[in-house]
Structures are given as structure tokens and as C-alpha cells.
Amino acid sequence: MIRFHYNLAPNPTKVALCLEEMGLAYEPMPVDTRKGEQHSPEFLKINPNAKVPAIVDGDQVVFDSNAILLYLAEKTGQFLPPAGGRGPMLSWLMFVATGIGPYSGQAVHFTRFAPEPKEYAVNRYVFEARRHWGILDARLADRRFMLGDDYGIVDMAVWGWSRLVPFVLGDDAFATLPNVKRHLDEINARPAAARALALKERHAFKAEMDEAAKLAMFPHLAQKTA
Ligand SMILES: N[C@@H](CCC(=O)N[C@@H](CS)C(=O)NCC(=O)O)C(=O)O
User: Fold this and answer.
1) Which atom, in ligand 1's list, is nearest to the CA of 217?
2) CATH of 86-189, one of 3.40.50.150, 1.20.1050.10, 3.30.70.1230, 3.30.457.10
3) Dist CA 105 CA 103 (whole Å)
4) Residue nearest to atom 12 of ligand 1 (CA)
5) If you measure from the C-alpha of residue 82 to the centroid of ligand 1, how many angstroms do you get, rounded to a whole number?
6) I need a surface site. Which of 46, 89, 139, 182 has the fewest CB within 10 A?
């Protein structure tokens, strides 16, 4: 059975959706990143980058959410695009992996957690996050899903983060991203999405973002500055 190392953050949640959509049997293995469990020697053998998600599938260990989506799609032959769609699939998957995820994550970090002065960093990351979400919105303006009529792993990758758009960009963000909202609502209505989100009932993760949690998640804070 696949062991799924996760918490409730966007990148693991897209993998939970994928596992549920594919009907794969998996054992959820909580990693409480606010308690620093991502730095345990056991977990570092699975993901030397000390982040979730990661999966162990027999002798295959896969970390990084978008790599896992692609691995599972290739393993099962499910949720891949029809012939001719491989190029766009790879492009949009990497767009989420290298743009949507990192810029959205850093926008949250600088807006909510960084100390002052932070105006330059907030401006840069919120601007870039908005710009990336705008590109996705335009992509979805004349397509039901990211690659056309068929739902696939790129949609799952987008959903992991689109659930968090108001948290990333502000409560009114969907007013200017109507197609992203429509896409989010359609995926939210899928039974697999409800099952993926029900993972939150399985384990009580640490809720407090106290100093110990910040040190576990932002290890540069332990560095001495000159
Ligand atoms: N590129 C990685 C990013 C993984 C990542 O940043 N995971 C976050 C949760 S969404 C995490 O583990 N944070 C804990 C930490 O940074 O210590 C992926 O897509 O899986």
C-alpha cells in the first residue's frame, strides 16, 4: 500500500485529491511540520528537502507534489491528457510547480510572518502571485479544465492552491479571478475532493504558530546575522 506523508497544506492536499481520484489504497502518515517532524532522520531519508508531501510506493520514494501527481498518473494511466496533450500538460504542471506554488507561498510568508521592513518583499511576491493567478484565469476563460474538456492532474495541482487564493491574495481576490473560482467550485463538488479534505479529521495537527513552530518551518531564523 502507498504510504502518504502529508499535512493539511496545499501541496499535500493536491496529492490527497489525486490518490482519491485514482482510487488508490494509501496509508496516511501525518508529518506535523509545526512540531518539526519534517526534520526527523526517518523522514529525511524519504525527503531530504524536509517538506511534505512524499509517498513511498514499494521500492519507489517520490517527493515534491507535482512529481507525485505525474508518477501516479503514469503508474495508473489515469488523468493524463489525450494524444498531443503531453507538452501542454508538462508546461502547465511546471507553471504551477515553479510559479503558482512558490509565489503564493512566499506571498503568504511575507504578508503574514516576515518582520518589518518588508514592503519591498510583500510588493514583489503579492504582485507575482497575482500575475501568475491572472495567467491561470485567462487560460481557464475558454476552457472547462486546464487542458481542455478533460479533468486531469494539472487541475488537481491548481486546486491544491486555488482553495487558498483568498488567504494568499485577500478576501476579494476571486472578484478578479472568476474562471479560477469556477474551476475551484467544480472540483470542490467532486466526491474525491470531499474525501481528500476529510483527511483533516484523521489527525490533530498542531494549530499554534508559536516560536517553536516558526523555527521548525523557517529554519533561517536560527541563523546568526552579522
Ligand atoms: N515543491 C514542494 C514544496 C513542498 C512544501 O513547501 N511543502 C510545505 C507544505 S505545502 C511544507 O512541507 N512546509 C513545511 C516546512 O517548510 O518546514 C512540493 O510541491 O511538494
Assistant:
1) 17
2) 1.20.1050.10
3) 5
4) 51
5) 30
6) 182
pLDDT interval class at 225 (50, 70, 90)? low
Q: How many residues does the chain have?
A: 226
Closest Cα to atom 6 of ligand 1: 51
Q: What angle do CA 106, 109, 114 make, to 5 degrees?
A: 125
| Confidence (pTM) | 0.97
State whether the beta carbon of 34 lies less than 6 angstroms from ligand 1.
Answer: no
119-155 pLDDT, tens per residue? 999 999 999 999 999 999 999 999 999 999 999 999 9
Q: Which three cell numbers stand for residue 137?
A: 484565469
**Contact yes or no for 119/111 (Cβ under 8 A):** no
Phi, psi of 187 (to 5 degrees): -75, -40
CATH superfamily of 2-78+195-222: Glutaredoxin (3.40.30.10)
For 19-41, how does the pLDDT look when each residue is reduced to its tens digit (9 = 90+)? 999 999 999 999 999 999 999 99
Ligand 1 mean position to 197 CA, how many Å?
18
Cα 144 to averaged position of ligand 1 atoms, centre (Å): 28
Closest residue by CA, ligand 1 atom 16: 217
